[in-house]
Amino acid sequence: MASEHTYKEYDNELESVRAKVLEMGGIVEEQLVNSIEALIKSDTQMAQGVMDSDQRVNELEIEVDEDCSRIDRKSTRLN
């Protein structure tokens, strides 16, 4: 049977994933606004900024995938 510590650790890991997903969503929301503005204003510098920020979104996606896989493996062992 899993200990209370294990459940708290599990909750903390899920909260970390949640925070990363929220961060990713915030970046994507900002990218959408900036990309529309760049298109309307024909602002290539702003458009480049949108493309540059995509690397952080990709990094977060990889981190979330890895975290979820790790959490899944650990939770499988608990059952």
In words, what does this structure look like?
It is built from two helices and no strands. Helix content is 92%, strand content 0%. The protein is an all-alpha fold and 79 residues long.
List the helices and strands and how they pair.
Elements: H1 4-41, H2 44-78
Helix pairs in contact: 1-2
Give the overall pLDDT as a whole number. 91
Order of helices and strands: HH
What is the rounded Rg?
A: 18 Å
Topology, number of strands? 0
Q: Which descriptor suits the 3D outline?
A: elongated
* Coarse structural class: mainly alpha
DSSP strand (E) fraction?
under 5%
Note poorly predicted spans. Answer: none
Count of DSSP H/I helices: 2
Question: Span between N and C termini?
Answer: 8 Å
Give helix % range.
Answer: over 70%
Biggest sheet: strands, sense, closure?
Answer: none
Oligomer state equals single chain
What are the main properties of this structure?
single chain; 79 residues; mainly alpha
Overview in brief:
The protein contains two helices and no strands. By secondary structure, it is mainly alpha-helical. The mean pLDDT is 91.
